[in-house]
Amino acid sequence: MGIFSTQRTRTSGPTSPISYLAFPAHSKRPSYGTSNRTKQHKSFQSQSLSSKLQPSTRLPQNLITTAASSHIPNAIPPNSIMAALKPPAAIASAITSSKLPAALLFAANTPGTFTTTLPLGTRTLLSGTTLPLLPTDLLYLASATKLLTTIAALQCVDDGLLTLHDTLPPALLPSLTAKQVLTDAGVLEPVTRPITLAMLLTHTSGLAYDFLTPKLMAWRKENEPPFPEGATRGVEEAFSYPLAFQPGERWMYGTGLDFAGRVVEEVRGKRLRDVMRERIARPLGVEEGGLHFFPVDEGEARAKMVDLNPGDPEGLGLAVLGGDGTVNRRAKGDFGGHGGFLTGEGYAKVLQSLLRNDGQLVSEEMGREMVKDVIGGMGLEDEFMAAMEGPAGDFFRVGTEKGSKVGHGLGGVLTLKDVEGWYGEGTLTWGGGMSFAWFMDRKNGLCGLGALQASLPVDIGLVTELKQVFRKDVYRQYAVWKKGEEETATV
């Protein structure tokens, strides 16, 4: 039936390469302070979980641990059972063979009867000490920050502070409304259509990443002075270059969510991180200190950072970004497109709330708007599909099959047709950097998060493959579990 007992026996200790902590949806998660964090990691073995693994995925007994109920408030009682995700064989193998230090996997169905937060492996502190990965550890989100910024912007619409499709007031962010368009001939021309919030949220505003747009790279080289060593800059300075195309005429992945974050800051009158803490983290019960933007300064939060280790002493998120942390090293302020940090359990709560469309984050009406295709409504289907099939298409498609019909919703790529045995129509999905993947599928009633914690230098081929393994295996396991539930119900 895809469930496991949490009967526990003592194991070898907290440095086991693979650890499991399975928290029921209703349980209160633990909070760890800096001084006693290592003490909280005493581990216990779950023999029954290992026995449930298929031979190809079965792991040595001393590599499988689960947190003891004596160390976790309201943890699963020793004799209880719950639906649980098992580690895909390829991910388990990558960790046991030290190709991947750790992974945080999460999946849940709409009612919460199939739900698991599954941390695997260990993380390394700056001191070199290794600890089991926990759901309460702070993960660098990279572009998975964009979903949180989208939610913060849509809350402004719900509150009547902004609209999706009207012109953004020029006085709100003058640097944005003053931008011109760089033509393919290298000439600047005025915009023919004003930028809207919906354009910022769907990468149709003309705000493209320069590293994906050769003409913008050339323009910057010719028109911007070298960046001073050690200097930092905010969103408007970092992305001061022109638009790559007229607003609303194309799709290109870019900096729209960074500017959307600045719009939120202006209308709310406070930093983006504070808006998200008040309107996203607290309503969902995410522990204090569970949401940050680069740089993370608070001592207790730094103690929980996965991306603060001997290979990344500045906490830049190098392993997530693929090795280059310039985008964070030069950052000043909260970048809504890539600067966020959130606990794994916190991101899981965001996905669960959106899956249920429970009104905690955005109104139910806005929740339905999030999974409507914006691209088709703008008449950009051909342009969008050309980008999906282009040189960066594999990255843009975030795992969706090449040739399958996709669009873009408010928050990510959107499937427009069912994929047999996998994503349902209207599945919203995106990710972060090289190793972070999420999806939210209301039609099939399933959401998931795969945060692979790579080591440097990053094996991009491996993490790309394992992200896809996770996306597919969640659906396979869920189908097996549902079949077992149906068979049990008929007995």
UniProtKB/TrEMBL annotation:
Residues 137-447 form the Beta-lactamase-related domain. Residues 1-18 have a biased composition (Polar residues). Keywords: Hydrolase. Residues 1-56 are annotated as: Disordered. Residues 43-56 have a biased composition (Low complexity). InterPro entries: Beta-lactam-related, Beta-lactam/transpept-like, Diverse_Enzym_Activities. One of its GO terms (molecular function) is hydrolase activity. Belongs to the class-A beta-lactamase family. This is Beta-lactamase/transpeptidase-like protein. It comes from Schizothecium vesticola.
